[in-house]
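User: Run a structure prediction on this.
Assistant: Running it now.
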Amino acid sequence: MIKTIEVSTKKQLRDFVSFPKKLYSGNPYYVPRLAIDELSTLNTDKNPASEHCTSKLWLAKDNGVTVGRIAAIVNYKYIEKWGLNTGRFGYVDFIEDFKVAEALFQVAQNWLKSLGMDQIHGPLGFCDLDPEGMLVSGFDKTSTFTTIYNFPYYPVFMERLGFTKDVEWYEYEIDIPRVPPAILEKVSNHVLTNHNLRILNFDKKRDLKPFIPKVFRLINSSYSDLYAVTELSDKQIEYYTKQYLFFFKTDFVKLVVDGDDNLAAFGLALPSLAKAMQKCHGRLFPFGFLQIFKALKQNDRAELLLIAVDTKYKKTGVNAVILKAIVQNKKYNITKADLNPQLENNLPVRTQWRYFDSVHNKTRRSYIKKL
């Protein structure tokens, strides 16, 4: 018999975080999350999103064995901003047994309904920087450090549960040429000259730190109208800076500023950590950090995480400046790059990759259901 148990102890939280590693054991496409980060994100005492979010976690058990997990989240900033009483589900995984999925979603839906929610959508996290979107195609492609992997039966079960598509994100794999395409070079030089912009390069992380608040302010403003986005608080900015600064390589952080050092655009990439995370099973210790250090120092693949442009410079081609700067990375022999999920209706972002040979290799979806 399937039982759902609310997570209330540290042991149960560790069980919640470790379940996907057991579920996908031996799967060559699954890339585990960093366990220490997920434990922190799901701990309401550590995650600053708890100031405007309330959440619960559940495990599904069958004869004492964990067979599934789910989180339900109410983001009150989202409700205030978008005017929708819509709760979220996320961090959801289950064995190939419809009764398990049914039990998990039933308990999550009941709790959200008790709080006055009239819809549920997801998978989503506490904010847009958390993993989101259920894979609906590309199951035979290796996941990335920042995205969710799931089995093909997941979307089948979602439809049986009465969920329908809300939005989709597309992911691409692009070829990185040794020399930037001529048109990219031309557009980049034109934009820099005509708008009095320049690229900032950094040798050390400490030189980058003063610009981090500006980067997050630009994320807040340029991403504001995107699906389910809520602006990050100062405490969240501090939290995510500490969480991800370890992985930043200054060669992969590109900032474009005007004559007064105001941030016009930025791009963030990193050497692919997919293989390293698979080898260390999402754990830094005892030797996982060595695999990560190796991947950060020597790699032929990258993950392009974020590009943001100030509204003042949209439609100027400043994206080309960022792309050219990333391509011209001399310290790494990057030949392929995985692009982070891009909303299906975000054509300005999706079309910026026209300078490169690219393949649409994955699609992920947010589902929605009335309660």
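The CA atoms of residues 2 and 62 lie 5 Å apart.
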